[in-house]
């Protein structure tokens, strides 16, 4: 078990490193002076010279990479080209907004999607199953940014029920929650269908297994069979899927943050990418990748904790 | 007293995309209290459908079209859903065929067993105590600590014991056993049979035992119901069925069973033809198309059930006094050996003559890595390998058949694959006509592959699913650059050789029955006229009546072509019929090898003895009373010291526990790895 | 339990599957939408009512009318026509993106599954590293460096799609590698190339094609999303994303652009998803098992 955890952690670090290296190579494989590219057209020669020295851009690539990784490990993600503010500080400030949005979206979609999938698998081809099928495909079919726009159109502009801009006043929980509703709805909607379909498919598969038939042959209550014998197995691939799909969820939060002008990592990346403030983009991308890797790690651990077969094979 | 279970005129259909399959037609039989009733039949006979109908667990597309299932006088088919819940588990319980897939993988045995006891008004600790007690009763050692374990942590035999414990937990009135030993090895099968018999006398249980295994039925049952293609063709006392079978199908089935014949014969009896298509209702007797004694009436009218003796009845026109006169002289059961096509004989002549042994394996060793190098280092495992095959030596001459026998995990399949270079051997030699195959590079091995072929276990699964039969059987020509030959002619020739109709050439594997797919496998293996054929479980997945056809075909081709066969199997009766020599494998080593008949008559190694005695005989008079082998096969990673069999050997001495036995050559030339060979 | 063999070729599995597909109303609906998508994109000039770039400032921000079926944008261009032409961009990205990533993913996946363990581990690591970039964030980062263009969108689509095809091909190949028919081919002396091409690929490609059908909406959405953010197709070229992006800025003046730009996106996504689901239900026996 510990060995597995260690291996899995090591692998996660390697993946993050690979991703960082890819980012790094991208920056340096472009013809031209990396400093001018990173800083964009507005940078003055002085800033460029300072940046070159600070980022060791005059040194060999491998050396720069080691320095960068070393800095990252010490919690130093570099600093903002214009304000000179440490990127790590900006991230610490923005990450909670993104996390809140992602978790809220995931939570509501799981609360709706998993039971929907479960019920429709218990009675396949019933009216509930058919409606669920249409709802799931329907929700998957509308991209989250389109949901955001249309939600604004309906709930903010036409009905004037909910606010459009920002994350709410600091300290005012209720206001923050009101500001969270539309973005979380937009980000989570596709996931309702996604989860419902996934749970339905794996429940159907499990309900056809021999051990479900034996549980019925032993006269167990159907409630026990569905929740204790079937769902416990069927939920496992769904958990893995949530981990893997978290990247997609983050893409959704980027759109939501931009469209709803909400603070967050995605908004920072977008604004800074347009401003060509590359150190901030680099740091923010690093943070999202790390976030993704941590979430998949947690998903894997939860699966291995729930499934004795996996637990023993570790 | 009425019978506990009384099935009357049961008809069950399955809706399929191709129309209705009439899976059960007018099935009637009784299960009296306190008796074991065996339901025997080949695949497609409807014996499983009976189980699922009785328990009302038919698949969604199954429809009961008529009949009654009276349990203790009440019709189960009329039970309401709540009544059914009380019926299942409480009054009737099932022991399943494959314990691995029929027990929840994510719940411990303790959880699964206390779940079953939910209806009992007991405290949790009482339920647990009862579960532990039942596990002890079925022979699971140390049940207190094993009850918290999960199915995957149990061995196959122990899992089936746990399955029996679960079924008995609620003291059911009727116990249904669905092929309870099919997933198990011979020695485990013997133990489970023993256990069921013990439990039956202790609980005075009523048992319905469903199986295709005639030996198992003869060993355990009081009464037998024979099913064929969805109908009960004969039923009666076990002795009536096995000694005085009245229905031609029962007679043929008994004759086909390789375990039955005590004398060895090269040609096995077969039942020609296939099970009828159950989409159509047969006009007359279902067995008529395959029946050697069929008369005109058989194809026209369905036979009624005729009493033959006390409680013994069969559905056959031959027993109808009104038709008795018209009965043709029953032909002796068909021996499906037609003369081989002349074409095959002409091709058999091979110019070169090799005088030495065809295949000579010396000291072969195959190791498998069980964990990664880094992982092993972290865990401090010094040797992250297990030996699947260890120090194996054997020889095979041209025209000879060597049977390699062992239980699952004995390394027999690995040995066969290592010879052909499909798995890498650690050390040793495999010399084929003077060339050591293991020392060859892939490039120089390839031309030699024309002279050797392998047949794999799964008849359908060993055929590439998206290729036609023609592409499959002509692939060897393409691989070996002989595409210049007329492949149409070759395909036609091969089809004729294995007696497969020419129109099968355009079919795909999933459109073939097991027997037909196996024929395609034989045709492919023999396409290039090899000298050596390694056949891994050539009869696996085939019904008894089809087994014979394949074995006869293989024997015939061997006769005409002088092939050397290495037959790998766990099925001793089958191996006995076709082998000249035998090699017995245990934990990757050969424990005994030599002449096949000699080994069967007087096994010298205690393990061989256990295997030979472990075969259930299809003869109710030959029931065994004593268990010949206890315990389970140790894991490869944990080989016992000394003689590796000593942990299960009833003759083991102190010496066996410490000293590994060498090879002893017996008077008849047999080689035994044992300190105390039997009968010497 | 299979009752006996088929006496003659009374029915064929292929035909049965075709009937199953034809009887699936959602699948047929999906097919209709997909055909509509292809037709409208390919024959856009034929269906168009205006020049997609012709400006008509006096008539800007108009609602639907007899002349402008879906209204006009901030420059008075006909939204209906621009949506039709936007479909061409979507089709181009989908066709190139899906086919390239399908082929590359298939080859890499088969190599990973069939080849030595180190290659498998290496490819898996690369796939995982790519997957850890949320698509839009990868897009944002590379646009920050390279500037927006359609080629970049295509590159992002291909790079981020390869791992899903690769993983699926790898899993199927790994499972096939241990089957007896592959061992049989090896025992006959078949070369690796032959084994891969004749025995593995035909059995791997099916699920990948179904995945491709389900992947089209994803690809179209990525293109629309990036263009929406101004990181993809550049004005004045019309894409569903740019129409939505421009529409969003004037959403308080006219709602028609975000509606007109969104509907074809939703219909296309719906069509391919329904089609893919129907294909999977018909061809993946695993999901058919449930009673």
Give keywords.
heterotrimer, A: 314 residues, mainly alpha, 13 helices, B: 680 residues, alpha/beta, 8-stranded mixed β-sheet, 23 helices, 30% helix
Rg of chain C over CA atoms, rounded to whole Å, is: 23 Å
Give the overall shape of chain C: elongated
SS strand fraction of chain C = under 5%
Number of strands of chain A: 0
> How many beta-strand segments of chain C?
0
Low-confidence runs of at least 5 consecutive residues of chain A: none
Structural class of chain C: mainly alpha
List low-pLDDT spans of chain C.
1-11, 285-291
Average pLDDT level of chain A: 84
Biggest beta-sheet profile of chain C: none
Biggest interface, which chains?
A: A-C, 58 and 46 residues
Q: What Rg of chain A is obtained from the alpha carbons, in whole angstroms?
A: 23 Å
Supply the number of helical segments of chain A. Answer: 13
The major sheet of chain A is characterized as: none
Strand content of chain A: under 5%
**Structural class label of chain A:** mainly alpha
Quick check: average pLDDT of chain C? 83
Cα distance spanning the termini of chain C: 15 Å
- Percent of residues in helices of chain A comes to over 70%
Order of secondary-structure elements of chain A = HHHHHHHHHHHHH
Give a brief outline of the structure.
With 680 residues, chain B is of the alpha/beta class. Helices cover 30% and strands 22% of the residues of chain B.
Description:
- The complex is a heterotrimer of chains A (314), B (680) and C (291).
- With 314 residues, chain A is mainly α.
- In chain A, 79% of the residues lie in helices and 0% in strands.
- Chain A has helices at 2-29, 34-39, 45-54, 61-73, 87-122, 127-141, 144-158, 173-207, 210-217, 222-259, 265-274, 278-306, 308-313.
- Chain A is globular, with a radius of gyration of 23 Å.
- In chain A, 46% of the residues are buried.
- With 680 residues, chain B is of the alpha/beta class.
- In chain B, the strands form four sheets. Chain B has an eight-stranded mixed sheet, sandwiched between helices.
- Mean pLDDT of chain B is 87; it is low at 329-351.
- Chain B is globular.
- Chain C is 72% helix and 0% strand.
- Chain C contains twelve helices and no strands.
- Chain C has helices spanning 13-22, 25-42, 44-47, 79-114, 117-131, 135-146, 150-177, 180-187, 192-228, 240-249, 256-283, 285-288.
- In chain C, helix 5 packs antiparallel against helix 7 (150-177) and helix 8 (180-187) crosses helix 9 (192-228).
- Chain C is elongated, with a radius of gyration of 23 Å.
- Chains in contact: A-B, A-C, B-C.
- The interface between A and C is large, with 58 and 46 residues.
């Amino acid at each position: 078990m510990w060995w597995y955890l260690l291996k899995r952690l090591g692998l996660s670090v390697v993946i993050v490193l690979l991703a960082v290296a890819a980012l790094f190579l991208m920056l340096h494989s472009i013809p031209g002076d990396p400093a001018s590219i990173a800083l964009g057209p507005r940078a003055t020669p002085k800033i460029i010279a300072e940046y070159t020295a600070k980022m060791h851009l005059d040194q060999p690539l491998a050396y720069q990479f080691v320095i960068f990784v070393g800095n990252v490990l010490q919690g130093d993600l570099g600093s903002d080209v214009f304000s000179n503010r440490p990127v790590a500080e900006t991230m610490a400030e923005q990450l909670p907004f993104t996390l809140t949005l992602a978790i809220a979206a995931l939570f509501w979609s799981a609360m709706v999607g998993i039971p929907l999938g479960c019920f429709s698998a218990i009675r396949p081809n019933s009216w509930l199953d058919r409606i669920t099928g249409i709802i799931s495909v329907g929700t998957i079919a509308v991209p989250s940014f389109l949901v955001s726009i249309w939600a604004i159109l309906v709930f903010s502009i036409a009905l004037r029920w909910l606010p459009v801009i920002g994350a709410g006043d600091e300290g005012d929980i209720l206001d923050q929650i009101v500001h969270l509703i539309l973005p979380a709805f937009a980000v989570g909607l596709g996931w309702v269908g996604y989860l419902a379909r996934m749970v339905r498919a794996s429940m159907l598969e499990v309900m056809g297994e021999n051990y479900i038939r034996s549980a019925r042959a032993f006269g167990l209550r159907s409630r026990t069979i569905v929740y204790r014998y079937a769902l416990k197995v069927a939920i496992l691939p769904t958990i893995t899927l949530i981990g893997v799909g978290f990247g997609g969820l983050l893409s959704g939060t980027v759109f939501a943050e931009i469209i709803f002008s909400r603070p967050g990592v995605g908004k920072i990346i977008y604004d800074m990418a347009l401003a060509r403030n590359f150190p901030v983009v680099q740091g923010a991308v690093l943070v999202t990748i790390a976030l993704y890797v941590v979430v998949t790690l947690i998903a894997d651990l939860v699966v291995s904790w729930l499934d004795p077969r996996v637990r023993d094979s570790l | 007293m009425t019978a506990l279970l009384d099935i009357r005129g049961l008809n069950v259909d399955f809706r399929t995309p191709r129309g209705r399959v009439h899976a059960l037609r007018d099935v009637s039989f009784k299960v009296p209290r306190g008796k074991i009733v065996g339901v025997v039949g080949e695949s497609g006979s409807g014996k499983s459908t009976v189980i699922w109908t009785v328990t009302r667990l038919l698949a969604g597309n199954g429809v009961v079209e008529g009949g009654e299932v009276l349990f203790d006088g009440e019709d189960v088919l009329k039970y309401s859903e709540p009544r059914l819940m009380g019926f299942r588990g409480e009054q009737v319980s099932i022991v399943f065929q494959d314990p691995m897939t029929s027990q929840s993988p994510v719940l411990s045995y303790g959880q699964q067993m206390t779940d079953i006891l939910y209806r009992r008004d007991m405290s949790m600790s009482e339920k647990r105590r009862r579960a532990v007690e039942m596990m002890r009763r079925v022979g699971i050692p140390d049940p207190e600590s094993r009850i918290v374990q999960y199915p995957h942590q149990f061995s196959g035999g122990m899992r089936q014991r746990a399955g029996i414990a679960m079924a008995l937990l609620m003291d059911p009135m009727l116990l249904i056993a669905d092929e309870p030993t099919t997933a198990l090895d011979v020695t485990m099968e013997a133990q489970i049979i023993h256990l069921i018999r013990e439990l039956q006398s202790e609980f005075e249980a009523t048992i319905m035992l469903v199986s295709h295994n005639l030996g198992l039925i003869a060993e355990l049952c009081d009464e037998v119901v024979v099913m064929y293609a969805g109908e009960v063709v004969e039923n009666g006392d076990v002795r009536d069925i096995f000694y005085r079978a009245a229905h031609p199908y029962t007679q043929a089935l008994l004759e086909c069973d390789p375990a039955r014949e005590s004398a060895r014969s090269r040609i096995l009896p077969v039942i020609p033809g296939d099970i009828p298509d159950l989409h159509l209702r047969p006009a007359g007797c279902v067995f008529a198309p395959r029946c050697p004694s069929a008369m005109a009436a058989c194809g026209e009218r369905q036979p009624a059930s005729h009493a033959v003796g006390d409680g013994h009845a069969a559905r056959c026109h031959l027993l109808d006094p009104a038709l008795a006169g018209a009965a043709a002289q029953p032909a002796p059961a068909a021996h499906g050996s037609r003369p081989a096509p002349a074409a095959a004989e002409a091709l058999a002549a091979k110019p070169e003559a090799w005088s030495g042994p065809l295949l000579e394996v010396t000291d072969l060793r195959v190791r498998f890595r069980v964990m990664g190098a880094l992982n092993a280092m972290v865990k401090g495992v010094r040797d992250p390998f297990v030996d699947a095959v260890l120090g194996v030596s054997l020889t095979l001459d041209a025209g000879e058949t060597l049977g390699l026998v062992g239980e699952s995990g004995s390394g027999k399949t690995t040995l066969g694959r290592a010879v052909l270079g499909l798995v890498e051997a650690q050390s040793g030699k495999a010399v084929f006509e003077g060339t050591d195959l293991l020392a060859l590079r892939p490039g120089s091995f390839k031309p030699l592959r024309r002279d050797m072929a392998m047949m794999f276990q799964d008849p359908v699964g060993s055929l590439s699913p998206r290729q036609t039969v023609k592409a499959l059987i002509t692939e060897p020509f393409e691989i070996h650059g002989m595409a210049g030959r007329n492949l149409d002619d070759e395909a036609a020739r091969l089809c004729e050789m294995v007696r497969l109709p020419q129109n099968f050439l355009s079919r795909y594997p999933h459109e073939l029955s097991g027997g037909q797919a196996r024929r395609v496998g034989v045709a492919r293996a023999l396409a290039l006229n090899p000298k050596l054929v390694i056949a891994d479980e050539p009869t696996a997945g085939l019904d008894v009546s089809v087994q014979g056809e394949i074995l006869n075909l293989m024997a015939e081709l061997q006769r005409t072509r002088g092939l050397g066969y290495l037959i790998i199997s766990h099925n001793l009766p089958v191996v006995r019929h076709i082998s000249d020599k035998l090699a017995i494998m245990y934990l990757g080593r050969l424990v005994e090898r030599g002449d096949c008949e000699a080994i069967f008559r007087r096994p010298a190694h205690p393990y061989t003895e256990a295997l030979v005695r472990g075969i259930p005989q299809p003869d109710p008079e030959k029931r065994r009373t004593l268990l010949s082998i206890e315990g389970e096969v140790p894991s490869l990673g944990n080989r016992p010291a000394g003689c590796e069999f000593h942990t299960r050997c009833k003759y083991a001495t102190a010496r066996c526990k410490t000293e590994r036995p060498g090879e002893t050559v017996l008077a008849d030339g047999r080689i035994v790895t044992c300190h105390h060979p039997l009968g010497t | 339990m299979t009752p006996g063999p088929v006496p003659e070729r009374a029915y064929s599995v292929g035909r049965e599957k075709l009937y199953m597909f034809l009887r699936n109303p959602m699948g047929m609906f999906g097919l209709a939408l997909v055909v509509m998508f292809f037709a409208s994109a390919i024959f856009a000039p034929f269906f168009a009512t205006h020049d997609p770039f012709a400006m008509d400032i006096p008539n800007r921000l108009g609602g639907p009318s007899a002349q402008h079926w879906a209204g006009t944008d901030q420059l008075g261009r006909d939204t209906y026509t621009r949506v039709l032409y936007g479909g061409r961009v979507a089709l181009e990205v989908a066709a190139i993106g899906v086919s390239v990533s399908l082929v590359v993913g298939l080859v890499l996946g088969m190599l990973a599954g069939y080849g030595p363990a180190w290659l498998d581990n290496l490819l898996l690591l690369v796939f995982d590293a790519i997957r850890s970039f949320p698509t839009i964030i990868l897009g944002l980062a590379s646009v920050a460096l390279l500037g927006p263009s359609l080629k970049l969108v295509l590159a992002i689509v291909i790079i981020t799609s390869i791992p899903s095809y690769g993983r699926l091909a790898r899993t199927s190949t790994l499972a096939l590698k241990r089957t007896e028919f592959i061992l049989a081919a090896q025992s006959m002396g078949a070369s690796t190339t032959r084994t891969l091409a004749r025995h593995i690929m035909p059995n791997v490609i099916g699920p990948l094609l179904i995945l491709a059908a389900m992947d089209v909406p994803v690809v179209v959405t990525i293109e629309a999303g990036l263009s929406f953010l101004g990181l993809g197709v550049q004005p004045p070229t019309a894409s569903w994303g740019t129409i939505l992006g421009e529409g969003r800025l004037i959403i308080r003046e006219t709602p028609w652009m975000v509606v007109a730009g969104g509907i074809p996106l939703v219909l296309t996504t719906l069509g391919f998803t329904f089609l893919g689901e129907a294909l999977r239900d018909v061809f993946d026996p695993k999901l058919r098992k449930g009673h």
